[in-house]
Design brief:
Number of helices: 16
Low-confidence stretches: none
Strand content: 5-15%
Radius of gyration: 22 Å
Mean pLDDT: 83
Number of strands: 4
Distance between the termini: 57 Å
Largest sheet: 2 strands, parallel
Helix content: 40-55%
Strand order of the largest sheet: 1-2
């Protein structure tokens, strides 16, 4: 809409939209995408106009700031807006309808009350990432979860507490992430933080879960216990035989939250010395163990 208002001619050409460039797998991948686009523009090798939506990460802004490129680029700041409130309300209602069906609640039941939906719309502050995380948090996959009403109340209570950084547009989302992390039992938290550290710092292909669990000496039940309280912020993909394969975050902001001690607090910061050194030691031990095998066949035989 903003593009249309500012320049109607933009739709007269072939337009390619890239939404969420900052959520591409790695910084390297993001830079490759930018370089490819800018090269095509300079060489006029394609007839396309590009609309790229992203948070203003420093490496992305730097990639678009050279004197050679600036003449081809039009930047537009899109602040978080409550104009999306109606869509967020529809999303919440649909999400709660799904939750009621999933939990087998009567179709005639009005839950949650409309005032709760209104408050959640306000707390979302125009961020669909908050809205989606909220419905997953309240819907509550995993075992031994609080009741629906207790989870709803916990999220609504976030709106009654003073935010640590009211100037941060992600402050409400950070408060929700803190709520989710505080629900992890203290005895399980070290394994959870270690898994998250390895996931963020080592994005291997293939069976990620097997790598992570092997490094941390976690059994399959131990892995599921470690992620049991995090299904509102991450997904575990599975093979056709129902074995866990990969961990992925629903939104990049969760990883950024974990890496920023000011946002996540020292307790949940994955960069803390305890988490860092445990993971480094575990990786070193794994590499040392693997060095005992002369080739892949010996390793396969040991694992079989």
């Amino acid at each position: 809409m903003e593009l249309h208002v500012n320049d109607r001619r933009i739709f007269s050409n072939h337009l390619i939209v890239i939404d969420g460039l900052d959520e591409a797998d790695t910084v390297v991948a993001q830079r490759v995408i930018i370089k490819t686009i800018l090269s095509s523009v300079h060489q006029q090798s394609t007839p396309f106009l590009w609309a790229i939506f992203s948070r203003p990460e420093s490496h992305i802004e730097a990639a678009f700031s050279s004197e050679r490129d600036i003449q081809f680029i039009w930047k537009l700041l899109l602040p978080v807006s409550t104009d999306a409130d109606n869509n967020i309300r529809l999303y919440l209602r649909d999400g709660f309808k799904t939750i009621r069906a999933k939990k087998g609640l009567p179709t005639s039941l009005t839950w949650p009350p409309e005032e709760a939906v209104d408050q959640l719309v306000d707390q979302s502050a125009g961020l669909f990432a908050y809205t989606a995380s909220t419905t997953r948090c309240i819907g509550g996959d995993g075992t031994d979860q609080p009741s629906l009403d207790d989870r709803l109340k916990a999220v609504l209570n976030l709106g009654k507490t003073q935010l640590q950084d009211s100037g941060n547009p992600l402050a409400h989302l950070d408060a929700l992430y803190l709520l989710i992390m505080t629900q992890i039992p203290q005895s399980i938290l070290p394994n959870t933080l270690a898994l998250l550290w390895i996931r963020i710092n080592n994005n291997w292909g293939g069976n990620q879960v097997l790598f992570y669990s092997s490094i941390l000496r976690l059994s399959l039940p131990g892995f599921y216990t470690a992620v049991n309280n995090l299904y509102s912020v991450l997904a575990v993909s599975k093979s056709i035989s129902n074995m866990p394969l990969e961990l992925s975050f629903y939104h990049a902001s969760f990883g950024e939250f974990l890496k920023d001690v000011k946002r996540s607090s020292p307790k949940f910061h994955i960069g803390s010395s305890d988490v860092h050194w445990r993971c480094i030691a575990a990786i070193a031990e794994t590499l040392n163990h693997l060095s005992r095998y002369n080739n892949a066949s010996e390793l396969d035989a040991a694992l079989s």
